[in-house]
Design a protein that fits this description.
Layout: H1 3-29, H2 35-40, H3 42-70, H4 74-84, H5 87-101, E1 107-113, E2 119-125, H6 135-161
Antiparallel strand pairs: 1-2
């Protein structure tokens, strides 16, 4: 197997893991009630979020390795430099470092009331460009971005350049 193929397949494996972690986060946060009940699930939510961050970061790392294994391709380098400037991509790269290296809690619980006066709690981002946004929809949106803007274009750029058959998008 060509090293480029191996790295791109590794990225897809981590993408599937990220999707699974997102579903786990959704299950943990879908039926939130008051902030005390939500807080009891806090360790599980934070753990799944941390694992999701590891997966999404590894997708980019694997695509980077695939690009290096392909050799000097100007089209890939130009595209990769553009990807690095994406604000959400940059945020989640830094978020992973803060969560893993500084063991910081970067997500938090916010409490609100529904139309009947019942307390409803939600997990949101506590900082950065996504501060206050609900956790799971943003993770899902980033997963979509990783697939459509990172993994698929990397396959399109790298496979023909290395004379490899293109990977199936269901890899």
């Amino acid at each position: 197997m060509h090293p480029v193929t191996g790295h791109l397949q590794g990225a897809m494996k981590m993408f599937r893991n990220a999707e699974r972690r997102t579903r786990e986060l959704d299950e943990l946060t879908i039926r939130l009630q008051d902030s005390n009940a939500t807080l009891r699930r806090g360790d599980e939510v934070r753990e799944q979020y941390m694992l999701w961050l590891v997966c999404v970061r590894q997708i980019a790392a694997s695509v980077d390795k695939a690009g290096k294994a392909a050799g000097p391709l100007l089209s890939f380098k130009k595209w990769w430099d553009e990807i690095a400037r994406d604000s959400s991509h940059d945020f989640f790269r830094k978020e992973r470092n803060v969560v893993l290296k500084d063991t910081a809690d970067t997500i938090e619980i916010v409490s609100m009331t529904d139309g009947s006066g019942n307390e409803i709690a939600s997990w949101v981002f506590g900082r950065g460009p996504h501060a206050g946004e609900p956790l799971v929809p943003r993770c899902q949106k980033y997963n979509d971005w990783l697939y459509h803007q990172l993994w698929a274009p990397a396959c399109e750029l790298l496979c023909p350049a290395t004379l490899m058959p293109c990977l199936s998008f269901d890899c």
